[in-house]
Amino acid sequence: MPDPTRHHQLDQLHQAEAQERHAARELDAQLTTARAKAAELHDEWVQATADRATAKITQAKTRHAAADAEISELEVKVKAAKLRIDRATAAAAAYQAEHANELVKELSAEASAITNRLVEAATVLVQADKDWYTMSARVGAHLAAKGVEPRGNLPNTHGYENVIRDVRRTLTDVGEPRPPLPHYQAAQWSEQQEAAAVEAKAQRDADRDRQERQRQAQGPAEVITNQ
Q1: Which distant-in-sequence residues (6+ apart) come within 8 Å of 10 by Cβ?
Q2: Which of 5, 48, 119, 202 could serve as 56's disulfide partner, Cβ 3.0–4.6 Å?
Q3: How many helices and strands (H and E) does the chain possess?
Q4: In the structure, what pLDDT confidence band is assigned to residue 148 with cuts at 50, 70 and 90?
């Protein structure tokens, strides 16, 4: 099985980020619902207190406490979800930065194909202009054959003259269009990108080591509490 392309791997990272965002939206919705429910239970508690209904007060307090606990848990989950989003976003950005050179190379064939389509489209447009006037002459000859003056009965132009003129001038002056790729030398660009990728990887490794040392310094008790 061939290795997946860099774009495929980058797409997977973006999909992971999108999934984290979707999960965060769902948790936000749950938190909103839980807060609305807690507000209702609070009103019930107030009403039971106003009625001096001891049993209802106890029940309302219990239900309200459970709702508050659910809110607290959801608030933690929402914060954790946002943290996962940040991590997923950072992972995609880091991957794109590290493999930018390879990502551009993967697009080079498609970029060249698009550029070739520009040439083909310009050539087709110029040829269509010629064909239009050729057809106009043929139609005019048929009109003249039956005594109808072509001038005044046929359009003189098709209306795209300015476009055709610009295309002709561009084909003459510019020649081959430029592909949407780096205009500086590929070797120089590759060296710059590879150096940046090495630096970015070293920074990520240093950050990971620092985070590991911080977790170890927290101790078992704090780790269990965070869980």
Answers
A1: 92, 95, 96, 99, 103
A2: 48
A3: 5, 0
A4: confident
Task: Give, in order, the Cα–Cα distances in Å from 129 to each of 132, 134, 141, 153, 200.
Answer: 5, 9, 19, 20, 53
Res 94 pLDDT > 90: yes
**In the 8-state DSSP scheme, what is residue 150?**
S
User: Distance between CA atoms of 173 and 137, rounded to whole angstroms?
Assistant: 30
Q: Ramachandran region of residue 152, left (φ > 0), alpha (ψ -120 to 50) or beta?
A: left
Mean pLDDT across the stretch 67-94?
A: 97
Classify burial at 189, counting beta carbons within 10 Å of its beta carbon; exposed 0-12, middle 13-18, buried 19 or more.
Answer: middle
pTM of the model: 0.65
Q: Distance between CA atoms of 135 and 155, rounded to whole angstroms? A: 12
User: What's residue 195's pLDDT?
Assistant: 67
Q: Do the Cβ atoms of 170 and 122 come closer than 8 Å?
A: yes
Whole-number Å distance between alpha carbons of 140 and 146:
10
Single-letter residue type at 135:
M
Query: Residue 185 has what pLDDT?
Result: 38
Q: Model confidence at 213, in pLDDT bands (50, 70, 90)? A: confident
Token pair of 105 as six digits: 């190379």
The helix (run of H) or strand (run of E) holding residue 42 is: helix 6-50
> Quick one: pLDDT band at residue 223, thresholds 50, 70, 90?
very low
